[in-house]
Amino acid sequence: MATSPLYNWPEPDNTDLVKNGALAIRTLGNAIDTTMGTMVAKTVVDAKGDLIAASANDTPARLAVGANGTVLTADSAEATGLKWATVSVTPTFVGVNATRTNTSTTVVANTAYQVPFPAEEFDTNAFHDNSINNSRLTIPTGYAGKYIISGWMSNPAGSPGSYQLMRLYKNGSQYTTGGVREGEYTRINTGANAPFGFSQTITASVGDYFEIYYQQNNGETVNMWFNFQLTYVGA
Fold first, then answer.
1. DSSP label of 228
2. Which residue ranges make up each domain of the chain?
3. The domain at 95-234 falls in which architecture?
């Protein structure tokens, strides 16, 4: 006996006698009925975007389409093991804020002073060490890319007309890409006690380190507050 090409249903041969026609039709019909009984009826779904999922072994079920913007998520507590859920993305902050607070320091006039940072407000990925090379903020493994770098200081102002400088250094040399006067930031004192600083976006590679140098022309002993930050913004 011949069979159908897709489901192998029995079909009468061309040479079968007419008297066997009823049996052949009945046999084919039974085979079709059995096959159709294992298929999912199209009436299981009734809306655009509906999905067919399993609620148990050999048990198909309808999962209704979710709201716009939701994503399909596995959830064993649901009947079909699936649900539509709102995407929730919590950004991971990466960066460091190293600090130096209320420290009396004698600064030699017109001499660059390498600013140490013995404390941190936060440090997510070991950018800084409070003891070893504590003047440095260093780019850790896996975080090469763009950064916002900023430095701020506050101290009693010198006499009017005197100046104070902050210089940004990269890998032991004054930073020479962007910034004011190639990485030099200047305040001309007017007698006011006001903070000053810088903030800019830079590109850095793993292992690059940054420092702040301070300079003034008075040679005074001053109490200095410094803040030095790196914030990773992406590759």
1. E
2. 1-39, 42-87, 95-234
3. Sandwich (2.60)
